[in-house]
User: What shape does this take?
Amino acid sequence: MNILGNLLQSQKKQAKEPTQALPPLKKKRRGIQIKSEVEIERMRESSRIVATVLKELAQRVKPGMTTADLDDYAEQRIRDMGAVPSFKGYHGFPASICICINQEVVHGIPNPKKVIRSGDVVKIDTGAFKDGYHGDSCITVAVGRVSPEAARLIRVAEESLYKGIEQVKAGNSLLDIAGAIEDHVKAQGYSVVEDYTGHGVGHNLHEEPAVFHFRTRQLPNVKLKPGMTLAIEPIINAGSKVTRVLRDRWTVVTVDQSLSAQFEHTVLVTPDGYEILTDRNRV
Assistant: This one.
C-alpha cells in the first residue's frame, strides 16, 4: 500500500469496526527502524501470509467475479492464518484489499457491483498484521485474454520492480533503486507515477523512509543498512504519469485514461544483499 499523504488527511469516511481489528494507530516512531532478528522473523511470517493470499487470488480471479468477492476471500484467508488485514480500517479504508482495474492506479475500493471482465488489467494490493508486524505486497493480473499492449505493460511493471530490488544491498542508496526502476520504465516508453511512493514497513504499515521510484532530490536519499525493511512498489502507466483522485476520496486514476500496472514486495536488506519477504514462489 502506498503512502497516502494528503489523501489520508482528507479521508472522512469511517469503516465499520471489524470483529477482529488492528490495534489503534500509534504515533510513528521517528527515524528508520533497523529490525532485530526476532522482528525479522515475525515479518517473515506476516509476509508469508500476504504472499500466500496474493498467490491464491491470482489463481482465483476470473471474469464474472466482483471485486468484493476477492476482498471477502482475502479477508477470510488472512484471518484463517491468524493475522489481521493491515488495510481494513486503516485511516478509514473500508476493505482488506485495494483493487484497481485498467486505468485505476491505486487505492481502489472493492465493490459488489464492480464486475471483472476478460481483458481487464487487475491490480491487487494487500497486507497482513501478525504478532505486531506487517507484510505488504501487490500484484497485477491479466484476466482472460488481454491485449498485447496490456500484457507488455504488466511484464515491464514486474521487471521494473525486480530491477529496483537488484539494487538493494548495504551501502547502496534509495536513489540506486529509483534510478534502476526509472531507466527501465522509460526505456520501454512508459512513465513512472510520482504521486505515490513505497515506504518502510514493520511495526507500522508505513514507516520511514519514503521509497521513491524515480530520480528526485526532494526526498532523502537514504543509504541502505542491514535490517531495513522496505516496501518497494513502482506504479507505471502506459501514458501520462499524472493522476487524479475520484470523488470517493480513495480511488486514483490516470488523467488520460491510459492503463496502469504495479507490483510490490516487502524486502529485507541483508549483509549480503536482500531477501524478498513476500516472495510468492516460496509459498
